Amino acid sequence: MTGTVAALIRKDLQLERRAFESVPAMLMFSISIFVLFHFGLDRGALAGDLAAGVLWVTLLLAAVLGMNRLFVAERDQGGFDGFLMAPVDRTALFVAKAIVLFSFLVAVELVAVPAFVVLLLDPSPGQAMPELLAVLVLADAGIAVVGTLIGALGVQTRARDLIIPLIALPLLVPVVIAAAEATAPLLAAQGAEPFPARWLAVLALYDAVFGLLAYAVFDFLLEE
Amino acid sequence: MAATATAASVPAVALEGVGRAYGERVALRDVSFTLPPGATVAVFGANGAGKTTLLRILAGLLRPHAGRASVLGAELPREAWRARGRIGLLGHEPMLYRDLTVRENLRFHARLHGVPAARAEALTEQVGLAARADDPVRTLSRGMTQRAAICRAVLHSPELLLLDEPLANLDPGGALAVAPLIGRAAGPARVLISHAAEAGLAEADWVLGLRGGRQAIWAPAAQLRLADVRGLYA
Q1: How many angstroms separate the CA atoms of A151 and A163, rounded?
Q2: Contacts of A15 in chain B (CB under 8 A)
Q3: What are A14-25's pLDDT values in tens digits?
Q4: Chain-centre distance of CA A152, in angstroms?
């Protein structure tokens, strides 16, 4: 399965490099939202719960843009048919797409999180960066797993742009709660507070449960 | 005429009362025939007669709603996995990523099918696409795209070829170049959808005529006249 996953990832990254659609859209959306909050909240800077909430809601909504486009080439250009007729494990498509969405999220965050710090945050997370990275990785994994599952489901429908957020956002509420709870102390106004590791455990548990669930049902989603 | 073809070994296709509906609309009804290995059936019928639906059922991409279907000995849809990688489909869509080059597309499909990249290169050369192999598919003419799609369909040397108007958009040189890959001499059993009655009959061992989703003709090609086929479009 590894070779198939690698071929699918390589193909998706080539497509993104050529078409340049998902990552720029997600990034521009994130930065636009940060700018809107910057002016809309009319505050010099954010910290704590509010900062964490703004960061995670923005990243989640940006991720939805990526989910909407994740399977478009497969549906519109016959990729599903080609894949379904090949003698390969179908869950390879799930694994590859989840890795691709995860990598898109990481690429967006490499720019969006520093932009968030500059535009909205005071003080900078500085010392708490390793913990923040851990939260980002675990939350991104959860978003990628659920986003891939819902993306595959939604792309088969005509109202893809409506269906995907309507299903994905409620399912991802636990990720936002856990990620925001874990991030808030790292962004406290008086400097990073003790890190609540239990929220990392919640994120890891969410990733494991939805990862297994998605792995089990993805094959059926590809059926007509 | 009843399905009468028999095969010494496993038939390439065996359908028994196969039907398929999209919601209330019945696209295919009670289609039955047996295609021996290596034989070609030409499928004729007016637009909306159910030809594409039939092809997608045989490719394992659509479930039949009625009857029994088996392809290369694999019962559909239960054993569809047994037929995967043994069928080549050339449909209306080229099944190529428009933003990838011809070479990237073919190498991608080669990896999915476990075929060496050299096979993709050889096919590209054979159909006269070598000079355009590094161009994105979206920049190719329809004829060139069709050549690339044919390479994709035969890349893994399938035992059954499902061809929907394979020569569409090809110039005479293109048709000549792809003939060894998808023509009668290519070897695999073929289900060939065509609107060109004369050419279709010349290519076929058997003829399936569809009218309004129903099987109107199943007969050896040698026993049919052009008028029989043209009657399907009346």
Answers
A1: 9
A2: 97, 99-100
A3: 999 998 889 999
A4: 15
